[in-house]
Amino acid sequence: MTGSHVSKHARDFWWLLRSQLFSLRLTWFWYLVQMTFVPLSFLAFLWLFIGQARPEVMLFVITGSLIMNVSLGAMLSLGQDIGWLKEQNAYEHYAALPISKGVFLAALVTRGVLLSLPSAFLLFATGVIFLNLLPNLEALLVLVLGAYAMSGLGAFIGFWSPTGQVANLVTQIVQPLIVFFAPVYIPLQQLPYPLQITAHFLPTTYAARALREALTGASVQQLWPEILILLGFTIVSLGLIPWKLDWRAK
User: Fold this and answer.
1) What tens digit of pLDDT does each residue of 83-92 get?
2) What dihedral do alpha carbons 137, 127, 146, 201 form, nearest 10°?
3) How far apart are CA 120 and CA 150, in angstroms?
4) Is 66 within 8 Å of 141 (Cβ atoms)?
5) Are 100 and 9 contacting, i.e. CB atoms less than 8 angstroms apart?
6) Distance CA 7, CA 219 (A)
7) Which residue numbers in the chain have pLDDT < 50?
8) Would you tell me which of 53, 81, 207, 247 could form a disulfide with 91, CB atoms 3.0–4.6 Å apart?
């Protein structure tokens, strides 16, 4: 790929991302409330239910709430938005533009990732202030990579759903599966054996593990296995979806 092509893709990505963020100017507040309220409520419930008696489990509670937050913004909301765009025939507009499918998808995914970050920072600050977790850039890196890794699943659901309503329903089914049936809130060894096997195929497993390690002082070098796996999830999902997305065939 020549330098001119890279420059054009970068410009296309920037303008597509701006247009996606501009469309949120009237609804961003409710997105923030939605993606903060659920994980923060679950965090408070688990602290009241078991955290006061067993403070050692709070590392799993706070990191699990962070992963739930990221899955809401980067997977669930993204999948629903893509499904509704499809139902409204919005792809006819984008298909008429001289842009690549990969750049279009990257802009949509980055929008979902950016939506998940403000509420993630709030949850992160809660853990730092009340649970004495270590604030560091490694945890931020894991959150961003985990968001991109999960966003591929949301984009897949959105593009393959026949209607926006189906995308809405499927994402709400999948989101609890990748959080509660993976070692996110609980250790891997406490899951039933079949779920211990399926957990190896879920990005939430590696995002939660890396986040726990980062918040307890692990360096980037120690996090490389999980970082590479999350990068693999991101590359595979964002590489295969544009390849199969035939938006210009309409």
Assistant:
1) 888 777 777 7
2) 130
3) 15
4) no
5) yes
6) 34
7) 248-250
8) 247
